[in-house]
Amino acid sequence: MTAKRNWSNYAVLFLASLVLLTIWQMFYPPTELPDVPQYSKLTLYTNTSNYAYSLSSLPDTDYNQLINLNFSFNILNLVCNESSPLVIIMVHTSPKNFAKRKTIRETWGRYREKVKILFVLGAVKNITLEKKLIEENQNYSDLTQGSFMDTYRNLTYKHVMLFKYVIYHCPEAKYILKTDDDVFVNMPTMINFLTLDLSVYGAENLLFCTKRTNSRVMRTYRSKWRVSFSEYPGKNYPTYCPGWFLLYSQNVLFELYKAAQKSAYFWIDDIHLTGTLFKKLNLVHTDAEPFMVTPDELEQVVNNGGNITRPFLIGRPNLSEKQIRSLWNFVESNAVPKTILNEV
Ligand SMILES: *[C@@H]1O[C@H](CO)[C@@H](O)[C@H](O)[C@H]1NC(C)=O
Ligand SMILES: *[C@@H]1O[C@H](CO)[C@@H](O)[C@H](O)[C@H]1NC(C)=O
Ligand SMILES: *[C@@H]1O[C@H](CO)[C@@H](O)[C@H](O)[C@H]1NC(C)=O
Ligand SMILES: *[C@@H]1O[C@H](CO)[C@@H](O)[C@H](O)[C@H]1NC(C)=O
Ligand SMILES: *[C@@H]1O[C@H](CO)[C@@H](O)[C@H](O)[C@H]1NC(C)=O
Ligand SMILES: *[C@@H]1O[C@H](CO)[C@@H](O)[C@H](O)[C@H]1NC(C)=O
Ligand SMILES: *[C@@H]1O[C@H](CO)[C@@H](O)[C@H](O)[C@H]1NC(C)=O
Ligand SMILES: *[C@@H]1O[C@H](CO)[C@@H](O)[C@H](O)[C@H]1NC(C)=O
């Protein structure tokens, strides 16, 4: 009973945030940056005459440029050339993470109906490693490697490269899901959510993610995530979403791509793209937090062979292989909720 009531609260919250978003933007029209397109509300498309990238608005040199670098794809698979997916999943991965990619391929990444999945990585100096990556790609044809070095200070290049891939090589995908190689996505439920709760034709102005507000800029000297004052002068970051789960609509991805290509480089990709640049588009994040597995639920499924008694879309960040496999086993052996907003 309580589980059910909780769930209806979540659905109401979600719908309420969509309505609030619309009303908010009616009364507080965007004021800054008049040169960017002004999006007022989230729209679910109802027919196929939807948004299409205007590639002609990009300079000819755009394909071979990544922010301030010369760029090319070292490994490229044209997975959308024969059929366009409802959703393309782009998984940030570190070159050495062979085992993590394998886990995803064997679990939720196996789900291929209406879905394409690619792993996204940068270049490596180690020739043995590169040979192994080429072999892995021969086996699975699911890597996308850019010509910049794969380092955490280069994360924003990685993220903008995946935008570039989608814009040039998978422009018909209705939704773009960006994740990391240690997360779990409940694919069967996600597909029902996208097609039945959102729209099979796609949406406009959607960034569905677990939003963070008032995050402090990390200044601790020993932290890997320390940011200097010259890199980012402010005390707090704008509202942004952690990069492990980001569901973009086409137009949001395209506008962020154009903004990123023109802007100064800032290396923390999720803050730069889903915070700083997103804010300039005067858009609002749609919060995915209610659709995430809680630590208790995770513990139940992984260690107690228990149940998650409400529909969910995503696991949690930084999952182990065991946790990913347990969640997948759970999803595979249970009925898939049809729609998750109308279930209450
Ligand atoms: C199709 O959708 C677009 C954008 O949502 C709208 O402007 C147009 O009127 C729609 N056309 C039809 C035939 O419904
Ligand atoms: C990019 O490539 C052009 C020629 O292809 C070269 O002149 C230029 O120096 C390169 N820029 C960088 C940053 O490597
Ligand atoms: C589409 O891509 C696949 C896989 O990369 C490839 O085998 C096929 O030849 C491509 N087809 C076209 C028409 O480019
Ligand atoms: C290069 O990559 C191989 C394969 O992953 C690894 O075994 C080796 O330790 C790496 N070498 C260095 C110097 O990092
Ligand atoms: C690729 O497949 C071959 C043959 O099945 C296997 O021996 C090899 O380990 C695989 N390599 C990678 C990197 O997946
Ligand atoms: C990022 O990639 C570029 C291009 O490969 C490289 O020159 C640079 O050293 C990398 N930056 C860092 C901080 O690793
Ligand atoms: C999980 O839920 C299903 C259906 O509600 C039930 O049949 C099953 O026994 C439950 N399993 C556990 C371990 O609680
Ligand atoms: C990720 O999870 C592991 C345990 O699975 C833990 O040791 C590590 O601290 C976690 N990292 C972060 C960044 O939360």
Keywords:
single chain, 344 residues, alpha/beta, Spore Coat Polysaccharide Biosynthesis Protein SpsA, Chain A, eight-stranded mixed beta sheet, two-stranded antiparallel sheet, 9 helices, binds 2-acetamido-2-deoxy-beta-D-glucopyranose, signal-anchor
Task: Report the sheet-strand fraction.
Answer: 5-15%
**DSSP summary: helix tally:** 9
Low-pLDDT sequence parts: 23-38
Number of strands: 12
Q: What characteristic shape results from the CA principal axes?
A: globular
Write the layout of secondary structure elements.
Blueprint: H1 2-27, E1 43-44, E2 65-66, E3 69-70, E4 73-75, E5 87-92, H2 98-106, E6 115-123, H3 127-140, E7 143-149, H4 155-169, E8 175-180, H5 187-197, E9 203-204, E10 207-209, E11 245-249, H6 250-262, H7 269-280, E12 286-287, H8 295-303, H9 321-332
Parallel strand pairs: 5-6, 5-8, 6-7, 10-12
Antiparallel strand pairs: 1-9, 2-3, 4-7, 8-11, 10-11
Bound molecules: 2-acetamido-2-deoxy-beta-D-glucopyranose (8 copies).
Subcellular location: Golgi apparatus membrane
Protein name: Hexosyltransferase
Membrane topology: Single-pass type II membrane protein
